[in-house]
Amino acid sequence: MEVLWFLPLLVVPVLFWTSSTFVYYFKKCFYVAYMMLLALIAIPICILKSGGRDVENMRIIRFLVRHVKYFLGLRFEIIGWEHLQTEGPYVIISNHQSSLDVLGLMEVLPDRCTTIAKKELLWAGTVGMACWLGGIVFINRKKTSDAKSVMVDTAKVMLHDKIRLWVFPEGTRNQKGDVLPFKKGAFHLAVQAQAPIIPIVFSSYSNFYLRKEKEFKSGKITLKILPKIETKGLTSDDVSSLCDQSYGVMRAAFLEISGQSQSNGPSNH
């Protein structure tokens, strides 16, 4: 009977080495649970340090999260660090593949930088509370008028408080091996704030993370930081061309660092 107590301890390692599906769900569950735990730790520290909601709390969150990659078997290669050495407010735009993007974001997140996220994240337990304390801007994607209003207010805050903002212009997660057409909100924001845009591109996760096939192996993610795109002097009439320009350079970089050849892809902005 005593042997039965050891069976779970034997089964888990065996499944880990023999079942890619088990590894997938184990890593996914661990990731969510551990991030909730880290958020629980971050909440009181953020409140004690800043007294409440403050973009400076992102430093605490960044510090607590940056080691998570090791547990998941991930490593990052950063190209173009020099392009983030920019003073004042700016808008970072990047492609969006999964919740794992958070780990890459924390690898390069500049000081006084927060993100735009869907409103549903606010209700994600301790993670939602930590995000709120970090000054993350929540938008209701189902109400375009509300989202536009938030963008206008955010542009004013960027100018007044000299903050930076990270936006995923695809608007949703995408694992189709390409970059989806961009929504224009981030570009309206940058033009309104007259702040430069800094594109950051994540390489494809397809060599280690496949959601449909339930695979989650160890792997390397390349982050390529591209030269800033100026918006000074631009108006709302220039937003479409600015969006097209940004999409073009980011898609080319994505295909390059992902080892894919250039091909015709999404282009309907």
From TrEMBL:
InterPro entries assigned: AGP_acyltrans, Plipid/glycerol_acylTrfase
Phospholipid/glycerol acyltransferase domain residues: 90-205
GO biological process entries: phosphatidic acid biosynthetic process
Pathway the protein contributes to: Phospholipid metabolism; CDP-diacylglycerol biosynthesis; CDP-diacylglycerol from sn-glycerol 3-phosphate: step 2/3
GO molecular function: 1-acylglycerol-3-phosphate O-acyltransferase activity
Pfam families: Acyltransferase
Keyword Lipid metabolism in record: yes
Listed transmembrane segments: 31-52, 121-139, 189-210
Catalytic reactions of this protein: (11Z)-octadecenoyl-CoA + 1-(9Z-octadecenoyl)-sn-glycero-3-phosphate = 1-(9Z)-octadecenoyl-2-(11Z)-octadecenoyl-sn-glycero-3-phosphate + CoA; 1-(9Z-octadecenoyl)-sn-glycero-3-phosphate + (9Z)-octadecenoyl-CoA = 1,2-di-(9Z-octadecenoyl)-sn-glycero-3-phosphate + CoA; 1-hexadecanoyl-sn-glycero-3-phosphate + (9Z)-octadecenoyl-CoA = 1-hexadecanoyl-2-(9Z-octadecenoyl)-sn-glycero-3-phosphate + CoA; 1-(9Z-octadecenoyl)-sn-glycero-3-phosphate + (9Z,12Z)-octadecadienoyl-CoA = 1-(9Z)-octadecenoyl-2-(9Z,12Z)-octadecadienoyl-sn-glycero-3-phosphate + CoA
One cellular component term from this protein's GO annotations in UniProt: membrane
Sorted UniProt keywords: Acyltransferase, Lipid biosynthesis, Lipid metabolism, Membrane, Phospholipid biosynthesis, Phospholipid metabolism, Transferase, Transmembrane, Transmembrane helix
Keyword field contains Lipid biosynthesis: yes
Entry EC number(s): 2.3.1.51
EC class of the enzyme, as a word: transferase
Family to which this protein belongs: Belongs to the 1-acyl-sn-glycerol-3-phosphate acyltransferase family.
Function: Converts 1-acyl-sn-glycerol-3-phosphate (lysophosphatidic acid or LPA) into 1,2-diacyl-sn-glycerol-3-phosphate (phosphatidic acid or PA) by incorporating an acyl moiety at the sn-2 position of the glycerol backbone.
Free-text domain note: The HXXXXD motif is essential for acyltransferase activity and may constitute the binding site for the phosphate moiety of the glycerol-3-phosphate.
Name of this protein: 1-acyl-sn-glycerol-3-phosphate acyltransferase
